[in-house]
């Protein structure tokens, strides 16, 4: 879909990180924006900024783990603009898993990770897709996955990787079902990168609901941004800024790509190695981290 001006887009997790960069890029393309986020202060600031630039935009405080909250988001979007053409299921959390073993992680971490990263996507699809189909116009549902889990799994983030593997699978199935049903909609799956994306996902606990807390949360993240984390490692890892991801998403939307991930030799090598080992029914080597 090349002509984006005048269309309406909904972006969950749209008040920070990749989501905020994406809504700003969409605004420059002339879209109307519905921003969903659980952080009211950040949401208000994002909407005010867009409106100051002349964009038609509304903000809806949304907890994607709650079906009724996402349904209310859809109601608000259709009440404001009458139609939705783009749904970016982008809200996601990190779990601070790097120093812990899979078998020692509390169930509330598993529950929270899956509630946001997976069920949040499902809630978005259920709330919007039937109305988008009924509207009879071309549209796109883009789900944010990750290279980590979505294409290959890294050993230090088992919950996060598992959720993103699920998002990739859901996106593929959605893509096929939309085609089989002969709708005017299509699906896509986004793998932000190609390098570590400089967001505050490491600081997800700032928005963690009490129902998903096990009482042992410190409330403060060791690192606020990925830049902090990369600096602490002492390694010369590259960073990708959210604005670069947003620009890539727009290019991918206009090119009608399903697999939205930028060209990068490190990821190509890891994906190729994984695929070859699956076909060979072979060993599972540790990934060589080059991202």
From TrEMBL:
InterPro entries: NAD(P)-bd_dom_sf, SDR_fam. It comes from the Bacteria. SUPFAM superfamilies: NAD(P)-binding Rossmann-fold domains. GO terms for molecular function: oxidoreductase activity. Keywords: Oxidoreductase. Belongs to the short-chain dehydrogenases/reductases (SDR) family. This is Short-chain dehydrogenase.
């Amino acid at each position: 879909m090349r002509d984006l001006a005048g269309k309406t887009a909904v972006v969950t997790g749209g008040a920070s990180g990749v989501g905020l960069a994406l809504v700003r890029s969409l605004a420059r393309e002339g879209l109307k924006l519905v921003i969903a986020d659980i952080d009211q202060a950040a949401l208000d600031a994002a909407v005010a900024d867009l409106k100051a630039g002349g964009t038609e935009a509304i903000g809806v405080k949304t907890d994607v783990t709650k079906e009724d909250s996402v349904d209310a988001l859809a109601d608000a979007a259709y009440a404001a603009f009458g139609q939705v053409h783009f749904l970016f299921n982008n809200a996601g959390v990190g779990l601070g898993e790097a120093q812990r073993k899979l078998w020692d992680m509390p169930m509330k971490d598993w529950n929270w990770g899956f509630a946001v990263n997976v069920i949040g996507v499902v809630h978005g699809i259920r709330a919007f897709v039937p109305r988008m189909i009924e509207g009879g116009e071309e549209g796109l549902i883009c789900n944010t996955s990750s290279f980590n889990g979505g294409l290959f799994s890294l050993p230090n983030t088992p919950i996060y990787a598992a959720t993103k593997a699920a998002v990739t699978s859901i996106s593929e199935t959605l893509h096929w079902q939309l085609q089989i049903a002969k709708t005017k909609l299509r699906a896509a799956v986004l793998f932000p990168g190609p390098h570590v994306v400089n967001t505050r996902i490491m600081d997800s606990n700032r928005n963690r609901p009490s129902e998903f807390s096990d009482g042992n949360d410190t409330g403060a993240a060791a690192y606020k941004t990925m830049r902090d984390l990369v600096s602490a490692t002492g390694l010369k890892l590259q960073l990708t800024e959210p604005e670069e991801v947003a620009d890539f998403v727009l290019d991918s939307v206009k090119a009608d790509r399903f697999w939205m991930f930028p060209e990068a030799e490190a990821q190509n090598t890891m994906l190729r190695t994984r695929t070859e080992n699956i076909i060979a029914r072979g060993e599972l080597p540790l990934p060589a981290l080059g991202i």
